[in-house]
Amino acid sequence: MNIYHLSHIDLDGYSCQLIMKYTPYTLKNYNANYGAEIRTKLELILKDIEKNKKVTILITDLNLTADESRWLNNEVNKKNESGFDITLTLLDHHGSGEDSAKKYSWYYLDTTRCATKITYDYVKENFEFNEPIWMNKFVNIVNAVDLWKQEEVENFEYGKVCMRLINETRELNRVMFADEDNNYKLSLLIEATKYIEETDAPITLDEKIHLIKKQFFQEDNNDTLDNLATKYVVKLLGEKRKTNTIYYKGYRGFLSYGVGNTSIIGNGFLVAYPDYDFIVDISFKGAMSLRANNKVSVALISKEWANGGGHPNAAGGRIPHFKEQYIYDKVKEQVESLINDKEAVAGKLEYKKED
After folding, report:
1. Is residue 292 a contact partner of residue 312, using CB atoms and an 8 Å limit?
2. Phi and psi at residue 134, in whole multiples of 5°?
């Protein structure tokens, strides 16, 4: 069975995917926050399932609007009529989805349990399940904190630390590195389950968070978390050179989206891959951060692209009319359109390096 699983980006959402990790099926995970990202990720799933005609689309911890539910129902019906065999299931606990739940049989709603607990019960009843011994306890922990059951003191306190573990884990960008970020968060949750039965478990986990993050990134020598994560991210960027390379006036650049920490990561990338002249990272709101290593003036690039500025090797600016995206390809389309417009106006000019 091939399961395409879309879930929310909080502890409850990722915990639903952690449960599914212990089923024997082929899983492809996606994550989305509320708003336009849900529709974007559902469109991506519908595109991805072209490779497998018989699939299950599972949505957890996300309530769909009436329009989203109607659209998805119609899209799945059209595909099934054209030869696909798609099973659609949504498991959620947000009362705002009540109208859709009443209308569609695939939309399961229960406001008395968190999505993790709903998914856990559903999996036990409908799927093969290699349940680890800690799973039931962990599910109750997530349920306690997600529904804010403060009276369940032990579970609630441990759940608060788990919630922070997910909310404050930002070493990997989930647009640029969707699969890696998902794996990172699920790996951290698995590590968190190891301390459930410890004395003063919430304190123990709280003190272990830094260590378990470092363990995920460490390949050989120990180092600071920043350095280990930077090395890991630079390696991931390098693996994306085929799809993320851009050119401007004969100069070779690398385009990243929402990675941040450009001074460290950007310079680390340029040292690791000296065949690149510059790197530019675009924030979700269109702010640019550019770095170079004495091969081109990114201050001039920034000025020409967005009337920005800075230094020859470090500059910034903001792309006018930038639209936030949830898929990298859409970001690259906007930047390449900007580049084409600027090159058409300026022509092929050689840069004169600033002193």
Report:
1. yes
2. -90, -5
Residue of 19, 39, 20 whose CA lies nearest to 28: 20
Distances 318 to 92, 141, 213, 309 between C-alpha atoms, Å: 38, 43, 32, 10
Put residue 334 in one of left, alpha, beta given phi > 0 → left and psi -120 to 50 → alpha. alpha
Model pLDDT for residues 57-104, shown as the tens digit of each residue: 999 999 999 999 999 999 999 999 999 999 999 999 999 999 999 999
> Directed axis angle between helix 11-20 and helix 178-192, to 10°?
90
Model-wide pTM > 0.85: yes
Query: CA geometry: angle at 71 spanning 69 and 75, to 5°?
Result: 115
Can you tell me the distance from the alpha carbon of 26 to that of 20, in angstroms, rounded to the nearest whole number?
10
Check: CB of residue 142 under 8 Å from CB of residue 11.
yes
CA–CA gap between residue 146 and residue 18 (Å, rounded): 16
Q: Where are the alpha helices (DSSP H) in 176-285?
A: 178-192, 201-217, 225-239, 241-244, 262-272
How large is the C-alpha radius of gyration of the chain? 23
Q: What is the DSSP string of 138-200?
A: HHHHHHHHHTT-TTSHHHHHHHHHHHHHHHT--SS-TTTTHHHHHHHHHHHHHHHGGGTTSTT
Give, for 124, the enclosing helix (H) or strand (E).
helix 115-126
| Cα–Cα separations (whole angstroms), residue 12 to 7, 23, 310 | 9, 18, 42
Question: Where does residue 273 rank: exposed (0-12), middle (13-18), buried (19+ CB within 10 A)?
Answer: middle
Strand, helix or coil for residue 65 = coil
CA atoms within 13 A on the CB side of 236: 22
Q: What are phi and psi of 168, to 5 degrees?
A: -105, 15
